[in-house]
Write a structure and sequence with these properties.
Helix content is 25%, strand content 16%. The strands form three sheets. Strands 1-2-4-3-5-6-7-8 form an eight-stranded mixed beta sheet, sandwiched between helices. A two-stranded antiparallel ribbon has the order 9-10. It is an alpha/beta fold. It has a domain at 3-224: Rossmann fold, CATH 3.40.50.
Length: 365
């Protein structure tokens, strides 16, 4: 599943823009695609590069190394929503040969800035497009290990999640050499890779990384237009896997063996370093980047018991929700404090902070 398709599967509570307008009928051929929200127009250049153009162009364009998402399933709380809210021109690279598109992509710059975003292996296509041309002002690379972007853009922002340390297909990311325009953020307890098609054991780790990506996209555009420096990198603090002391997680097998390193964990099994979004800093469960099912890359979620009695009945050594937070009111207040601090650090948008607090009011105490 591609990055945008993955994001489109996530539920969102936010929407910016105007109602959809009616699509114009076509005299011949297949019917046109449905119109875009927010006053955008769709331009497909010979089936090679699909461009979404705003009625009033903003300060930057966004080139996505991915296929165009289905227009009837546009996500409402991901990077594309933020890009549309800021009047960015958005283009989708798809699977077209990058050599044929380099000239077209260069036109996107115009008088503004050009940002590139890619998930996983698609980062290679984005970097190939920029090779020798310094096409981009900034790049966002999500779960793009082990690709080294080098100097493909003056500003490079990279994200990696817990799953990067537990899958066999790729090594964990190496620490980057610090340089002024590069930032790396470890999203604690998050799974950024594509979801497995086969059923997985236990409840999937379904925490969304979108709030962090949205905030950094805003910070990135602001920086390119004379704003403050990006927030400091948040790297993972690692330890040998055999040294990690996992609690007895109800219904869980042992994590995959290995002689490499993984992020440090607390007594609940939650990761303690990197960028900890509110639902990781004040968790309702243990979130892992591994899953006991063979070939399953979604991670697992192990919910905390609501009460001490339920915890003892399940043989769960982790404190229950009531034991760790006392009441829902205290939990919501603490959630607000954590979320507001991340907003001040420009690692979370105010509307996403509000969404975390609203969700906390429904916590199963």
């Amino acid at each position: 599943m591609t990055g945008v398709a993955r994001a489109a599967a996530l539920a969102g509570a936010l929407f910016v823009g105007a109602p959809l307008s009616a699509a114009q009928p076509s005299a011949y051929g297949p019917p046109p695609p449905p119109p875009l929200p927010d006053g955008y127009a769709r331009d497909a250049r010979n089936g090679e590069l699909v461009v979404w153009r705003p009625a009033s162009r903003g300060r930057a364009s966004l080139l996505v190394a991915d296929d165009e998402p289905r227009l009837d399933r546009l996500p409402q709380a991901d990077l594309l929503q933020i890009a549309r809210a800021r009047n960015m021109t958005i283009a989708f690279l798809g699977s077209t040969d990058v050599e044929r598109l380099r000239g077209e992509a260069a036109k996107l710059r115009g008088a503004g800035r050009l940002l590139g975003v890619a998930w996983g292996s698609q980062a290679a296509a984005l970097l190939a497009l920029s090779k020798g041309a310094r096409l981009f002002d900034a790049l966002m690379l999500i779960d793009a290990q082990p690709i080294d972007p080098g100097d493909a853009a003056p500003v490079i922002v990279e994200f990696y999640g817990s799953d990067a340390f537990w899958r066999a297909a790729a090594p964990p990311p190496a620490a980057a050499t610090p340089r002024p325009g590069r930032r790396r953020y470890f999203l604690a307890g998050a799974v950024l890779s594509a979801r497995a098609e086969a059923p997985c054991a236990g409840a999937a780790n379904d925490r969304s990384a979108d709030p962090a990506l949205r905030a950094l996209l805003v910070a990135l555009e602001d920086r390119l237009n004379g704003g403050p420096a990006l927030p400091a990198s948040r790297e993972a603090e690692l330890a040998p896997k055999e040294s990690l002391r996992w609690p007895k997680l109800p219904g869980a097998d042992a994590p995959p063996p290995g002689d490499s390193a993984a992020p440090r964990i607390d007594s609940d099994g939650n990761e303690t370093s990197g960028l900890r979004l509110p639902d990781q800093a004040l968790p309702l469960a243990t979130f892992t980047g591994w899953n006991a099912a063979k070939g399953c890359g979604v991670g697992q979620r192990f919910d905390f018991a609501p009460s001490r009695a339920a915890r003892e009945a399940a043989g769960d050594p982790r404190p229950s929700l009531v034991e760790r937070y006392g009441s829902r009111a205290y939990f919501v207040a603490a959630l607000r404090s954590v979320a507001d601090r991340l907003v001040k650090e420009r690692l979370l948008l105010p509307q996403d902070a509000d969404a975390y607090v609203a969700a906390g009011k429904k916590a199963p105490f």
